[in-house]
Design goal:
By secondary structure, this protein is an alpha+beta fold. The chain is 41% helix and 21% strand.
């Protein structure tokens, strides 16, 4: 009687984050990829196990949770399990807006990157991508991953914020304040302010002590608290202040306030909940006579 091996498990989706064409998570116990190519960059981290692969007819191996695999577009590669327990991996397929194809040759030479900081940044990006409504955070994290990859492939060092830091931070804060409900992408903000995304984030964090996505979440929580104390229902408040849905509001509200929106709303002294149909955050409250 042969031993039973668990079946492979996979999940894949296309996030609403510019530059990422696909997210792919998998656990393979007995699988071998045939030689193939991608039209995108394949950025992979291992959570368990080891892999053996050939890239441009040169064999490589990777194991442990400190390394990062970067396979360039258009270059043939394969892959296979090494041990009976297989491996767990998380992949990001990135288009050439993240990394230009001209860097493919450098990646062929060193497809396995031993960089704990880069690996940690990729892990945190995957965590953000798994949460609905965290696109702004994910885009910000991808920007720093792109910067780190370009450091490895082209020796480009990040720019340190200078005298312009406070001005750029203030302008970005004003943009976020004006778009609290609808939000905006990091790419859009960088284009409006004529600044590189990672430089813009560094300037903001240096000036205000937290990244832009955290600032925007805090603004939305403040507006949600006011509306909940006015007696509005949590489900209505969530979309009114810019969260994806009530679950998205709940997750951040508990982290910021220590209780759920529903319990917070019930703690007030008041009566029936009014409608949010004509009320938007920042608009003057209606007087009651």
């Amino acid at each position: 009687m042969t031993g039973h091996r668990p079946r492979a498990s996979i999940s894949a989706w296309r996030p609403k984050v510019p530059g990422i064409s696909e997210v792919f998570h998998a656990h393979f116990t007995d699988h071998a990829y045939p030689a193939h190519t991608h039209g995108t960059w394949d950025l992979m981290i291992l959570d368990d196990g080891a892999v053996d692969f050939a890239l441009d007819r040169r064999r490589h191996g990777a194991t442990g949770n400190s390394c990062v695999l970067l396979l360039p577009p258009g270059v043939p590669h394969d892959g296979r399990t090494v041990t009976a327990s297989g491996f767990r991996k998380r992949n990001l397929y990135l288009d050439d807006s993240v990394l230009p194809q001209r860097l493919a040759g450098r990646a062929v030479d060193t497809p396995v990157i031993d960089d704990r900081l880069l690996r940690h940044r990729i892990h945190r990006l995957h965590a953000a991508l798994a949460r609905t409504g965290s696109e702004f955070e994910a885009e910000s994290r991808l920007s720093f991953i792109r910067e780190r990859l370009r450091f490895h492939l082209a020796g480009l060092h990040p720019r340190v914020p200078g005298r312009e830091a406070n001005r750029l931070a203030t302008e970005l804060r004003d943009l976020l304040d004006s778009r609290t409900r609808v939000g905006m992408s990091l790419r859009e903000a960088a284009a409006v302010l004529h600044a590189h995304p990672t430089h813009l984030i560094r300037c903001f964090k240096q000036t205000y002590g937290l990244p832009p996505h955290s600032y925007l979440t805090g603004k939305r929580i403040d507006q949600a608290r006011r509306l909940l104390l006015d007696g509005h229902r949590p489900a209505d408040v969530a979309t009114a202040v810019g969260f994806h849905d009530q679950a998205h509001l709940n997750r951040h509200f508990v982290r910021h306030v220590g209780t759920t929106p529903a319990r917070y709303e019930r703690s007030r002294s008041g009566s029936a909940a009014p409608s949010l149909r004509d009320h938007q955050p920042g608009a003057p409250a209606r007087s009651e006579h």
